[in-house]
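Q: How would the structure tokens look for this protein?
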Amino acid sequence: MTLPDDEVLTFLDDNFVLGTKNIQKELHVGLSHGYSPKQSAVGTTNGAGGRNVQFVVMAPDETVLHVLPGFWHKEDLLTELRFALELDKLYRSESITMRRKLEMLPLMHQAHLRRHGAEELVRGDWQSFDRQHEEWRLTQGPRDTFYALADGTMVLKSIPEVVHERMVAHPFEKLADFDLESFVDYGRPFYDNNWNDKGREFRAARTANSKREKQQEKERKEAAKLAEKEARAAERAARAAGR
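A: Here is the predicted structure in token form.
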């Protein structure tokens, strides 16, 4: 996040009530190394390191209006925060039915994406290692991070596109029901632009990642067993039908 900027801080102070939460023990947290107090954070692309930090914008009743994962450039962060205020007005409007609000929500996200300039989309491009990881994951199964051209070629979306499309899939959900783990599931779990000095490790994050990997492996094995069981059942049914 680009929070040390005076313009950003003023905008936040004027429009939001701020709070923080340590996510080191959350299962969705990514891995990285911490910076020492003498180091400066390295600028990167919008959405990079999405598992390591998330900016969640909520209405007073803890309805999630917008989520900005990872780092965002100042100008883009302000644009997204202003958009979150538009969503807040829609959500809290007493003259619009909830059904109509749910119809308007995807249209607002689409319009917002169309207003993004070419420079902002470039700033939302992928880090090379995240891009490579997403391309590999596409070989393992469908990914909502890609769209298909008419000839079948798969093209990686910009991270802002992924973020807005995923927000449309979570219309006005309460924070307690919001699946943040799946929302920030893009790119590599390990992110670090701290090349020269690795700094300190976050042990709680490493433990959470280990737990997540074990759970995912368990789920993969269970899914494979279920698929095998269903295949055997289908084979038996086919043999019975052929009698």
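The first strand starts at residue 33 and ends at 34.

The mean pLDDT is 86.

Upvote if useful.
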